[in-house]
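Morning - beta-D-mannopyranose inputs below, output right after.
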Amino acid sequence: MRLQRYEGNPILTARDFPRPVNSVFNAGAAKYGNEYILLNRVQGLDGTSCLWVARSRDGYHFTPDPEPAMVPSTEGPFARYEEYGIEDPRITKINNAYYIVYVCYSSFGCRVGLALTRDFQSFERVGLISLPDNKDAVLFPEKIGGRYARLDRPMTVIGGRRDIWISYSQDLLYWGDACVVMTPRPGRWDSEKIGAGTPPIKTEKGWLLIYHGACRTASGKVYRLGVALLDLENPSKVVGRAEEAILYPAAPEDFLGDVGNVVFTGGAILEDDGELKIYYGAADQVMCLATANVDDLIALCLKDMEK
Ligand code: BMA
């Protein structure tokens, strides 16, 4: 099974923004009232990224706000960790707040920042919630066993591992009980590294996770999307994982950009009729949309586990 690409792709390009920018990609997504929100990573002409809201009534046609939502801090505790920019946000609604986890990039490496908005007008930073080198963090939308939970992707120097981990917290700031959830698969499309894409989506069969996987080829890395299902009560347990990638570079925009051969997601919206809208960055250049039925994705995860 493959995701269905939207025929109007790309849905956002650098030219849509009210000032010259290099690229728009790897957005987080949320529904807020009647609005679809994309919190885009927008890379400026200086090469650093900021986070910029674009809004839509239908989930297909987006209009960027006049100004970015969050730019790298220049003072206070975040500043030295955001010196090279802020990247790849993911949005999770918990109660009435929208939490944003994003990558703080600096000479110290990548670490995870946490911010909060209630209205997609004003944004406040909450904390730096990982050490370097860690990224691709996503929050679960509710407490599990009385604690908040997140997935993330630490990068080890020894062994060079790139796995998806889980950890838990009482307050979203201090995290512990970390363990490995999912690892790259040798010889496959996700052999080199994996990282959570969209925040986990609750379904009857488990937490549905769209993730990215990369493998190394003679001409560099190829990034594809895959799907897995985590146990509802114990999300450190993988109950299903599709063998095949569900989205892989194939459309012209997936090859033509700053980093070709890349599809990378940070946000999806589940519609009432079961359609999942998956927003993804193509070639680190533009924003695109692909859809799937959520039950088909679940079936795909479970089918391959039965083998
Ligand atoms: C990853 C992240 C993403 C990017 C991808 C492909 O490591 O940096 O932001 O889309 O590489 O370049």
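Note: Residues 294-306 form the longest helix (13 residues).

O.
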